[in-house]
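Worked problem 6 (solution included).
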Amino acid sequence: MEIKILGTGCPNCKRLEKNARAALAGLGVEATVTKVTAMKDIMAYDILSTPGLVIDEKVVSSGRVLNTAEITTMITTALAEKST
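Solution. The predicted structure is:
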């Protein structure tokens, strides 16, 4: 699994990354967490505002800081979709 945090490094982006890492730890799931900070690369995901969360190259959120529970649900959904 690959998770990307889209953002320039603002406090909201850092909180989203922290929450994503906490969700992964809570689930016991290993994943690569990458920060995408270059505006050109962020724009490639066609989001209107940061921070953005991408799971396995699918944009699942943009413009808000998701809490750990919300990210946990999104990771669980992504894992279920992979196994079908």
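Discussion: The first strand starts at residue 2 and ends at 6.
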